[in-house]
Amino acid sequence: MKKIITTTKAPAPIGPYNQAVLNGNTLYTSGQIAFNPETNELVLDDIKTETKQVMENLKAVLEAAEMTFENVIKTSIFISDMNNFSLINEVYGSYFNEDTAPARETVEVANLPKFVNVEISMIASK
């Protein structure tokens, strides 16, 4: 059965979607960008700070579903410039245990919402 997951600790959706959907024991998050949920402003100081905000938003969504990054089984990373990959990967990797890190893909795209530099979505399971 589908259950909508929401939290005020992550940015509110700005369209016809939800922060996450729990279906059985599997959680599907919407892509997160670097909106600070307290200020409703983008955090675009530098790519590492931007990626950290994205990961903190995802952490909040996972927590709302009573999960952690250890529950994540798959991630999708969309970036606007593959030259930022190593910096994004450095921040992203700090949230996971390398031995149990999820599967993932990283794709360079022409544009992202609000013209941000990185967007990440996740699939997690209890």
UniProtKB/TrEMBL annotation:
CDD domains: YjgF_YER057c_UK114_family. One of its GO terms (cellular component) is cytosol. It comes from the Bacteria. The keyword Coiled coil applies. This is RidA family protein. Belongs to the RutC family. It comes from Mesoflavibacter zeaxanthinifaciens subsp. sabulilitoris. Keywords: Coiled coil. PANTHER family: 2-IMINOBUTANOATE/2-IMINOPROPANOATE DEAMINASE RIDA, PROTEIN HMF1-RELATED. GO terms for molecular function: deaminase activity. The lineage of its organism: Bacteria, Pseudomonadati, Bacteroidota, Flavobacteriia, Flavobacteriales. Residues 48-75 form a coiled coil.
